[in-house]
Design a protein that fits this description.
By secondary structure, the protein is α+β, with helices and mostly antiparallel strands. Helix content is 35%, strand content 20%. Strands 10-9-11-13-14-8-15 form a 7-stranded mixed beta sheet.
């Protein structure tokens, strides 16, 4: 007798958590939920895979709200589909010329080098990733020049609109590592979280520290709003449902006057810290958390600004970390041009100056701090920075009709030459960050990081100086700690272990 043929029995498939949740609802609420997801379909006209991801984001957020005891009506109100606007429904037609400061960044990439900076907020509660993802889904439409991918034109790179689901990720890699922008429709920024920290890392082609901070503030404001916090919009937090203004994407370097001569780009070699350069960049991250009031009092007692005081410490610490007896130490200081030319632009509107001292003149902070202060005043003056702004504009005008393939080779050579040897270090001070009071109450601290350099930021009464190391040699940070301690400022030290070298 022959055995009966038939299809093999299928193993039981575990029912999806959202489907279990949906079936647990009363029939009226199931109908309400069905209408809600039909509305999502009308707002998301992307590739099938992207539509599924966004639908899953809504499902995960609803599951979180249910577990937190929120009613379906309140959950649907917070996750209103109107917050998607038409961003995911309209085709990507916008594109942006790079601002004058940004044009060098895609040209200068080589050997894993990329101009990436990072802004972080530490909340008082661990991050809810489902809600952070929805916050980004809602916020990105407010920043159209961020929802872009870098493309090559014939003469210049440009930013091309990229309609997609922008993802948040659990942090697992080294901070400020290069972004993979060569992929089609790739992101030029990344949002990562870890415990109570949210970080955004930007390819500098998109924005500078000011624009990056506004994006981070707005994202966190929306995140806290979805968790039930209401706040008064102020202090650089944008309304995610406002229509972006033309001023927010303006290339403000066009306001520069005519350059009588090229200024600010002269090259002189600078001493570098001794020690083997790590294969992994940065190879270690250190945060010096400082009492902001005490720091300000110390700087005032020396008749200098906080930036001048920190620069003096960096010069002394830098000398202790090099074996070269002769030469100059030079520290690059980015300057926010908005303080001279008020602007709403979210794109790059910063330049830099260099503060320079002979190494054999550096013995202690007291002997150099007045010189540093005078240099800083002179180099960051309106007159000096306006000349450099005009020179930047003029340089781009001279290069504009040179094909990109030729421009790229020249820029890579120039960047490698200048980037490796023109400056010993960089200090970028974003200054004091203000938040709406309701938000500030839920934030512990902030930090600002540049790959292979020093970034500084102040929130509430904490100033954080972040050092991204390029070598494993600990001389620099040990000397820096001792200098702070000698002035009665005892830093709270945080950071990573040494990454692979």
């Amino acid at each position: 007798m022959k055995k009966e043929k038939g299809r093999p029995k299928r193993k039981d498939v575990m029912e999806a958590p959202f489907e279990i949740y949906r079936r647990s609802l009363p029939e009226a609420e199931q109908e309400k939920l069905a209408l809600f997801f039909d509305d999502i379909k009308n707002h998301v006209m992307l590739a099938k895979g992207e539509v599924l991801k966004i639908r899953t984001d809504f499902e995960n957020a609803l599951l979180y709200y249910s577990s937190a005891g929120l009613s379906l009506d309140d959950a649907l109100d917070r996750l209103s589909v109107s917050n998607l606007g038409g961003f995911y429904a309209r085709p990507p037609v916008l594109w942006y010329k790079l601002d004058d400061a940004a044009k060098i960044f895609p040209l200068s990439m080589r050997h894993g080098q990329m101009s990436v900076f990072r802004l972080s907020i530490y909340l008082k509660q661990d991050i809810v990733p489902e809600i952070l993802q929805m916050s980004l889904n809602f916020t990105i439409k407010r920043f159209p020049s961020f929802a872009t991918t870098v493309k090559k034109g014939f003469f210049w790179h440009y930013l091309d609109a990229s309609k997609r689901r922008y993802a948040v990720e659990l942090e697992s890699g080294i901070p400020c590592r290069p972004l993979k922008i060569s992929r089609s429709a790739s992101q030029s920024f990344r949002v990562v979280y870890f415990h109570n920290r949210v970080s955004i890392e930007y390819f500098h082609v998109l924005t500078d520290g000011t624009g990056g901070m506004i994006f981070l503030k707005t994202l966190i404001a929306e995140y806290l709003h979805l968790l039930g916090t209401e706040w008064t919009r102020a202090d650089g937090v944008l309304n995610i449902n406002d229509i972006p203004s033309e001023q927010e994407t303006a290339n403000e370097f066009l306001r520069a006057g005519k350059a009588e001569k090229m200024s600010g780009y002269s090259y002189q070699p600078a001493l570098q810290m001794s020690g083997k350069i790590s294969k992994v960049q940065p190879c270690r991250i250190l945060h010096f958390r400082l009492d902001a009031s005490r720091l300000k009092d110390i700087a005032r007692s020396k008749n200098v600004t906080v930036t001048s005081y920190i620069l003096a410490l960096l010069f002394v610490a830098g000398k202790s970390a090099t074996d070269e007896p002769k030469g100059c130490i030079s520290i690059q200081v980015p300057v926010n041009m908005r303080k001279y030319y008020p602007s709403e632009t979210l794109r790059n509107f910063s330049l830099y100056c260099g503060i320079r001292l002979p190494a054999d003149c550096i013995s202690d902070t007291e002997s150099i701090i007045e010189n540093i202060s005078e240099q800083l005043k002179q180099e960051t003056s309106l007159q000096s920075m306006s000349r450099m702004m005009a020179s930047t504009k003029r340089m781009n005008e001279l290069l504009r009709f040179i094909p990109l393939s030729i421009k790229s080779a020249a820029a890579r050579n120039m960047f490698g030459f200048l980037g490796d040897s023109a400056f010993s270090n960089t200090l970028s001070n974003l200054g004091v960050v203000k938040m709406p009071p309701q938000m500030a109450q839920q934030i512990d601290s902030m930090d600002f990081m540049l790959g292979g350099s020093c970034g500084m930021i102040t929130f509430e009464n904490t100033t954080t100086l972040s050092v991204a190391k390029r070598t494993a040699d600990p001389s620099f940070e040990e000397k820096l700690y001792d200098l702070f301690a000698a002035d009665g400022i005892i830093p709270v030290m945080e950071g990573s272990e040494l990454y692979e070298c």
